[in-house]
Amino acid sequence: MKAITLFFMLTSIVSHSQNFDYVANNQNPYGKINPVAPKQVADYSELIGKSSCKSVSRVDQNTWADTVQMTWVFKYIMNGMAVQDETIKEDNVHSGSIRQYNYDSARWYVHYYTSSGAVPTLPAWEGNREGNKITLFRDQRSPNGFEGDYRITFSDISENSFNWVGEWVSKNGQIVYPTWRIYCTKEE
Question: Model pTM?
Fold first, then answer.
């Protein structure tokens, strides 16, 4: 009898410790925020789901490429402790990011990857949300060698839509050079 009681106790402990209630599943295809996650994980709550987007990137100083249709999906990962996104674009250059909030630095760290080439170390941006904007930075020199940052900004964030811009910014903020823009409308 003691062996059976011990078995049920261990089974209960193991099943309780493997509580995966926040992963993506049939009821919650984009996962859910884990209640023990940093409250900042909710910074991306309006973006969670599937959006239909229009992407346009710069060809050179004076020319923007044709608009490319894309789908952008955001979901909670790591049992609701972080956020992942994935883009599927008509031009077959797909990408994604892993987004984790760090208590110690009080900042988001966003690691980016793309189908256009595998790299040994993923580039990372860092930043935060203020109001309906999420702004992330990464040190990056301009093509002509000036010190600066590549700044990514999610703006006009709502339950129905959001915009995104990637731009090179000089360290003093006086030069801002957009290189990529995305406009999204939520589908689900």
Answer: 0.86
- Structurally, the chain folds into a number of domains equal to 1
Q: Can you give the CATH number for the domain in which 19 is found?
A: 2.40.128.20
3-state secondary structure of 41: helix
Alpha-carbon distance 104 to 65, whole Å? 40
Query: pLDDT tens digits for 6-38?
Result: 343 434 444 444 688 999 999 999 999 999 999
Tell me the residue range of the domain where 150 lies. 2-186
CA 172, distance to chain mean position in Å, is 26
Instruction: Mention every residue, 6+ apart, whose C-beta is less than 8 A from residue 50.
Output: 71, 72, 73, 186, 187, 188
As a dihedral over the C-alpha atoms of residue 59, residue 73, residue 133, residue 35, rounded to 10 degrees, the angle is: -150
Contact status, residue 157 vs residue 170, Cβ threshold 8 Å:
no
Token pair recorded at residue 138: 């990464």
CA nearest 149: which of 132, 174, 130?
174
